[in-house]
Amino acid sequence: MKLCEFLGIKYPIIQAGMVWAATSPLAIAVSKNGGLGTIGAGSMSEEELRDQIRQVKDATDKPFAVNIPIMYGNAETQIKIAIEEKVPVVITSAGNPKLFTPVLKDHGIKVFHVVSSVKFAKKAFEAGVDVIIAEGTEAGGHNGREGIATFPLLRAILSELGDVPVVAAGGIADGWGFAAALMAGASGIQMGTRFVATSECEAHPAFKDAIVKAKDQDTVLIGGSVMAPTRVIRNRFADEVLKAEREGKSAEEIGLMFRGRSRLGIREGDLENGSLMAGQSVALINEILPVKEVINRIVNEALLAARSFNIQNLFCSH
Amino acid sequence: MKLCEFLGIKYPIIQAGMVWAATSPLAIAVSKNGGLGTIGAGSMSEEELRDQIRQVKDATDKPFAVNIPIMYGNAETQIKIAIEEKVPVVITSAGNPKLFTPVLKDHGIKVFHVVSSVKFAKKAFEAGVDVIIAEGTEAGGHNGREGIATFPLLRAILSELGDVPVVAAGGIADGWGFAAALMAGASGIQMGTRFVATSECEAHPAFKDAIVKAKDQDTVLIGGSVMAPTRVIRNRFADEVLKAEREGKSAEEIGLMFRGRSRLGIREGDLENGSLMAGQSVALINEILPVKEVINRIVNEALLAARSFNIQNLFCSH
């Protein structure tokens, strides 16, 4: 599948629907600049979500998406709003794709579903999902339990399921990674952390700075011993969760520790006590940039990588 | 750097030095078929190592490597043997590259060093290492503590250190992954698990079958709470280690659990009680093949991927 044609966009670059960070200004900027902007419904009330969708529709005629984590109690209402508002694309995650794919497709909405294993990829296509987003363990925020990295996950899905449309997500933030994912057979990429560190994103400036400062070793998976893990920049909160895990605290106790923490970190900029959801791509992000610049750079880097690539030249006749 | 020219080989494909599996028949087959075969010294006595090296030299004039984990007590002796036997390439891992790089280079030996983070990559080049092998969390066996996946690790090293020679290792077992790594700027790839599942490898047939059967979700990192983790195919032994970790057992106690287990799994084929070291690439390995066929396939797939790659075609003018 040619993802750009399917979606009616310029570049096969999807902005992830990060809670507390993927609001309308970011989605608008991404969609206006040739990618697919996404509103992250996970942290939104009904009114907020409807309002956010309308802001995007008022600002641009370009396609955009809403990401709805379907395990939450309000998922059904959010799906209903997406249908009423004629959202072009819904990205579902964290739940069974059979639940809402049929009703969304009946209303002419394109459905993407985030998966972390070949098994879930199969189930998503069986449920009628148009495109899957294969998210590796490198990715920020909520992560699959399986811990499979982006490239082996992508290759395993393509080699088991054949020529299906798969977007690669996790660990990609520059044009070489973008071109590599396309070379490995991805139909496009999804980026989250890279789009948080943009001028348009409504995340707190201190959180954006933390992404810029963080190095390759600075993210960690937390909560994984009792639930699906979350990748964050290591801080006091992360250390407290890891300590609670070592002490064998229950899933309920550890779950409670997370309450309110992503808002605290991402929107309020509390770098010690907040959950600073970010992926391993922090290592590749050294500047807060306007979205236009992020997209232009990654596209130009990918074109440069592709133009200078000559695999025969890398082999010898010894 | 053009790795093939530097090494005098045909394809920039390095066979990893897996304990109990990387013995002379495998190294000979890889080197004869255009890659860089490697003897894994980690599990060998002095006599065995010398004998293995001589077997390779007797069988082929092609270059080959010896992998020496430098944290073990016999590393100094093994380095001495490599020098005496005029081994063309030494791959050091699991330790400080300053220790032996100068003496190896004084004897005209090319030095590669395995790293799991940008920090260790910097240290390796400062120590005079020729090429680093960036090994991501996808890889089988002993793993870095940092948990960084292969592609973000590769990109982070190249973007921080500039145009340095980096071999990508971890999660790669087919030509699309090979081509993607080269596109992302790698000078070559290293594969371990793929080469275990070959007719020439002296690993136990039952272990090779376990690799063929294993799916994307079937490997797990064990021991990581108290030491550098090891990636294995999940079995009774792995579950026992994970249980001991949950119970807060000491590093010493858990370390003892590993004693003799890799030989038991890899050479004796005890699929329940052995340590079945393998990477996430198990998902991509569906057949035991001769080495010649593994190399021909991956090269042909990579050439096919590269020939059919046209990045402009993946963009639209919307």
Write the layout of secondary structure elements.
The structure is a homodimer of 318-residue chains.
Chain A: H1 3-7, E1 13-15, H2 24-32, E2 37-40, H3 46-59, E3 64-69, H4 75-84, E4 89-93, H5 101-106, E5 110-115, H6 118-126, E6 131-135, E7 141-142, H7 150-161, E8 166-169, H8 175-183, E9 188-191, H9 193-196, H10 205-213, E10 219-222, E11 230-233, H11 236-246, H12 251-257, H13 261-267, H14 291-307
Parallel strand pairs in A: 1-9, 2-3, 3-4, 4-5, 5-6, 6-8, 8-9
Antiparallel strand pairs in A: 7-11, 10-11
Give me some keywords for this one.
homodimer, 318 residues, alpha/beta, TIM Barrel, 2 domains, eight-stranded parallel beta sheet, three-stranded antiparallel beta sheet, 14 helices, 11 strands, globular
| The CATH homologous superfamily of the largest domain in chain A | Aldolase class I
Class by SSE composition of chain A: alpha/beta
* Helix content range of chain A: 40-55%
- Enter the CATH topology name of the largest domain in chain A: TIM Barrel
Task: Using the CA coordinates, give the radius of gyration of chain A.
Answer: 19 Å
Q: How many separate helices of chain A?
A: 14
Record field, number of beta strands of chain A? 11
CATH architectural group of the largest domain in chain A: Alpha-Beta Barrel
Mean pLDDT of chain A: 97
Q: Could you name the ranges of chain A where pLDDT drops below 50 across 5 or more consecutive residues?
A: none
**What series of H and E elements makes up the topology of chain A?**
HEHEHEHEHEHEEHEHEHHEEHHHH
Give the amount of beta strand of chain A, in percent: 5-15%
> What quaternary form is this?
homodimer
Greatest interface (CB-CB under 8 A), with counts per chain: A-B, 74 and 74 residues
Gross morphology of chain A is globular
The CATH C-level class name of the largest domain in chain A = Alpha Beta
